[in-house]
Amino acid sequence: MVDVNSTVMQVTISAGRLPQFREILRAGTMFSVSGFDVSRCAQNFRLTDSSLMIRFNESTSFQELTEPDSPLPDEAFRFRNHSELIGLANTNTQLPDIIGEILSVRSTVCDPPEEKNRVMVTLKLDSDETVTLSFFDAQAVAFHKQLKTMRVDPKVMVITSINPKIVGGRLFLNATSGTHVYFDKKTRAGDALFYKLVARDTGLPSAAPLLRSYAKVETMTIADLSSFIVSAESQEIDFLCTGKVVRVDTEKGWCYVACSKCSKKLQRTESAFTCGVCNNPHAVGALRYRVEMAIADDTAEGTFVWFDGVLTKLHSIRASEAAQMLAEDGVNPEDTRLPPFIADMEGRTYTFQVRVTAFNFTEHHKTFTITRIAEDHGRLTEDGVGSDGDGDDDDDNPNIKTPPAADDQGGTSKARKKTDAGTSNVVKKARAG
Ligand SMILES: [Zn+2]
Asked: Superfamily for 218-402?
């Protein structure tokens, strides 16, 4: 609630008393309130700048005012700019509001909605910085449906109570259970930005509908890919990325001996191979590629894993043949140096398909599996779609070792100072809800 002095305070009503008030609790309504308790706000996930909050008790009187005789402000948002959001990121202290121009919306919501859902909105803030805002599950579905029913794509979005996070040095905003969305002219703040944008418009028709589902294979930047798996619910989905190999991780080797029955990694004993999965102490082994590389585009860097099917196809040489080439006396193939054609991948740019699986959503598993490759940084070749190749690669997945991903989580945020909320500009909102 907001008063005539533009002071915004959080109000809580216990569930037991809610039926008494629920009917008249409508956004935009004016009330006179008397006989309530005042207590301190929790210090985390704060929805207002005030350190106090109002609690309705059994003697609270709550009367609707129908005469518009009060100079109450129309609305009150706690907009934060890009650098303030960075200051708040990962602190969980404030759930601020933002306003921005909608550049694109991507959604995993299908019709009818399946279990795990996510919508990512790219917004341009006042300072021209773009940020990614994510909705999850029921909120994602509701947002998707709301956009779908709109006749014209909205331009402006006001979003309340978002939780800023920094991941891999980039700012991401997550919707919370308290998040409300207002499009275009639904708010005064939105209205002002809307007309500013319309005035700037070139008059060209807009290129494509705003809301795009993640197609079977959607192009993604590596930063968006990293953000997709952060705090998202587990799901299986493919994306297309284009990036340059920054370095090949030589520490992790380039191949392993796989069980010819189940493709899992075999344990080398003195004279034989053991497969723990098949429970076979004398398993037949086959050499398979597995190479980790750091690949970057101009948004971020990620760790990607190339498996046997993709690398065999790319270089037209099997891992066992490569091992023959490099064979050294008394050295196991998996311990030999990198085949030159793999070392040569460093510095090259590839367009490749990435499969995000449930595996990517477990903590610290920040490697992405490359499932297909465009031979020459262009279109994917159709024969790369082979289902057997993909299947093989999936089998390999449980062998992926955990990359040292923990470091890129906190570094940036720790280095930043928390913004003093008291000095920020606050726009007030009168309408509850
Ligand atoms: Zn096996």
From this structure: Nucleic acid-binding proteins (2.40.50.140)
